[in-house]
Amino acid sequence: MADSKKIDDLAFRFSKLREKCIRSGESIENIRWEFLRNVYRVPTTQAKASESSFFTWNKIIWFLILPAITLFLGQSVLEYDADAKCLIEPDDVFLNELARKPTNCSLLCEGVNEIQRVSNLSKKEFISTYAYTGRPVVITDAAQNWSAVNAFSFKFFKRLYAKSDEADLENTDEGCLFFPYKSGFQSLAQALRMPKKRAEWKGKPWYIGWSNCDPTARQVLRKYYNKPYFIPHDAETGDQDWIFMGGPGPGAPIHIDMVQRPSWQAQLSGQKMWTLIPPPECEHICRTVQVTMQKGEIIVLDTNQWFHSTKIIPTGELSITIGAEYD
């Protein structure tokens, strides 16, 4: 009986916490980020002397109690509010964020006070300084001569996928993903059917992303861009194109990716501001940095290690980017 009362009390406390967060207007993404910061971060007093041991045990303890928290949030709380949702949804992405491998802070971000903007980047310098260290860099002249800069638009993608099998566009299997963010769309097919008014940014705001899984579309897309010149000849860029498109306002919320390799992303239209946040275990030696991508520029970073968010800058045109992984 005593244990039952304790569970009920804890569930009630979580329910009140959820209500407080909702009233405050705090986004679920920010709540998740703060939760992860508390899992990973290294206290200043222990940063040098016991970083390794603290990180290990802090993470293990949280990982062990997460199922209990999930139970209380996902089940017990519902006894108080049948329509309530979990404060933190225990989805695969969140569990991956929680269980990721710790970062080598010195290599990734120590001393990075701003994102370097370079041009005429040699393959040798790219490999030695940026390619596999995780340190972000913007190459300002990397995509300026691509025909994609002037060709890609909402209408371009609508025409590109017009003959695609709708079942393929509705596909959300692993490796073939659609990111609706807060657009309200459930699939790429649905997004490409949006009314003309909304497509021209005269209706409800939208921002979407997807990985192209249509081999015919891939052949067409790669007529408009080349492998970035700074990537060595013997390095492969991924077969899968990642495309992100939308108008002024929030883009992607704070997150890290779970892809196989580092990646690059080219800004082909509009402007997009990136906010890169070091992993929580690196906060004692690294800092958050921002950069605004201009048309024709490419950003290279390891999105598996940098937490990142994006915001579309009002310029009178949609922000359109395309990117891929490299080895």
Explain how this protein is built.
- Pfam families: Cupin_8.
- Keywords: Methyltransferase, Transferase.
- This is Bifunctional arginine demethylase and lysyl-hydroxylase JMJD6.
- GO terms for molecular function: 2-oxoglutarate-dependent dioxygenase activity; methyltransferase activity.
- One of its GO terms (biological process) is methylation.
- It is a single chain.
- The protein has a domain at 98-325: Cupin (Jelly Rolls).
- Strand 1, helix 6 (123-131) and strand 2 (137-139) form a beta-alpha-beta unit.
- It contains twelve helices and twelve strands.
- Strands 1-2-10-7-12-5-4-3 form an eight-stranded mixed β-sheet.
- The chain has helices at 2-24, 28-40, 51-74, 92-99, 105-108, 123-131, 148-151, 154-160, 166-169, 188-192, 196-199, 215-221, and strands at residues 116-118, 137-139, 178-179, 207-211, 242-246, 249-250, 263-269, 271-277, 289-293, 298-301, 307-313, 319-325.
- By secondary structure, the chain is an alpha+beta fold.
